[in-house]
Design goal:
Layout lengths: L3 H14 L1 H23 L6 H12 L1 H8 L5 H13 L3 H26 L5 H12 L2 H9 L1 H18 L6 H17 L1 H18 L2 H20 L1 H11 L5 H4 L3 H12 L3 H10 L6 H11 L1 H4 L8 H25 L9 H21 L13 H4 L14 H17 L5 E5 L3 H7 L4 E5 L2 H7 L4 E7 L9 E8 L3 E8 L2
Parallel strand pairs: 1-2, 1-3
Antiparallel strand pairs: 3-5, 4-5
Helix pairs in contact: 1-2, 2-6, 2-7, 3-4, 3-23, 5-6, 6-7, 6-9, 7-19, 7-20, 8-19, 9-10, 9-11, 10-11, 10-12, 11-12, 11-17, 15-19, 16-19, 17-19, 19-20
Amino acid sequence: MKYMKPSILQVKNSIANNQKYSYLIVFSVAVILRLVPEILAFPYPIGYDVINYYFPILKNFDDHWISVSNQFPLYIVLLHAITSIFHIDPRVVITASAVLIFGSFSLVIHSIARNIFHLSNYQSIFLSLFVIFQVSVLRTSWDLHKDMLALTITLYCLSYLDSISNVSKRIMLTILPLSIVSVLSDRMIGFLLISVYILYSLVKRERMIAILVTITSIIFAIGLFNSIDIMTNNIMLGGAENDALQQSYNSLNLGILFLVMCGILLPTGVIGFMKSKNIILKIPLIISLIGSFTWIIYPNTSALLPDRWIIIFSIFLSIFSGYGIVTLIESKRIAISHKKLNNYLVILIPFLFLGSVFATSPNGSYLNFYGLFHEYVHYYDPMTMQYNSISIPESESLVSLIDWINNNTPSGSIIVGSKHLRGWMELELENRSFLFSNDITDILHSNKYRDFYLLDSNLVTHRLQNYTSTLSYNNTDFSLNHLKRIE
């Protein structure tokens, strides 16, 4: 024991006095936190966009390029380049990229704590862990990989700009390329970054910042122009009043989502906001807050993506909330224990638990606090990261079903099913066609196909008219019926 105490003291001193150790701790925890859900779900992927966007595109890049090229394709192009040049499995590239981006995000948060809030190493570790274990951060990392990349770069650029007194040409050569990567990676984060730059330039009134704003805005405008057809289509779909999805964007559901993601962070977030002298991080917080309540002006529509703005607001709020907690502990307003470290741990542990449960628990786990609000928020977010477009157990059942289809149905057969399964079908279905729709009933009523197979969840049944139905396959989660039109 005599030898243990000096060793522990040396470790504490090393962490307290050497930034490298604190950065290493934060990065290591972030990588483990993001990697564990992938390992638990293996061999099945996690993330809705992963199975329905990233995997299919990387598998059939040339077939998808025309539609992908006008959707801010920088990130997917980078993934494709890596898989093609180094001949690496797309699953490895997608997963490794998501994990490394999450680790990089944690380093940026630590840098913000050190350089903007001027916290000690221990306090910076607390703030970093507090933020990365937030459900809003984990949910973004779950499948919005390009959003996570753009957000990480955006936070770095903003923190770098704020930490320097004057923007030189040398600094511009660092910030400008990163800003361009950010605005070309994701439309929403790109809009946020441009908005912050414009408002910040009005405050600082520096020539170099004005140049940064101008060049970045032009690049972003070109990206927007390239995706104008997609944006117009989304707005038109977002205005469809009779669409069941749009009806889910009501004030009750979005209000509960806001409270679930932000409610517990608001008190200390307000304190952190008031205590901080920083300007540049307050701007995106306010912009995302405004975006979170666009449903008040434009109710029952997903066109302005209020759910996504709520998630972004929660991420920025968590940064200020963590800082607010630090100020309360340091001023002894929070003094559960006479030791400050214990006070930090008492606050941090519940958030570590909630984040860990969200990352690792199976769908429907009783430990998952957010499952209590499933009825209201499942339209926007998963209840756990152990999910893609379906749960992990359902993924196993679906793969078994597709294997049966490939071996027991005629080549060229038509399979009809939910749009949520389209990625699975493109990856696994062989020499057969998969048709999907927001409402399968439309296909059934069209009488367009004489002979096809209807893939259903065992929780769903459809009323069939003008078709005979024969059960061909059934397992725990799915059934496959062979339908023939009655002539």
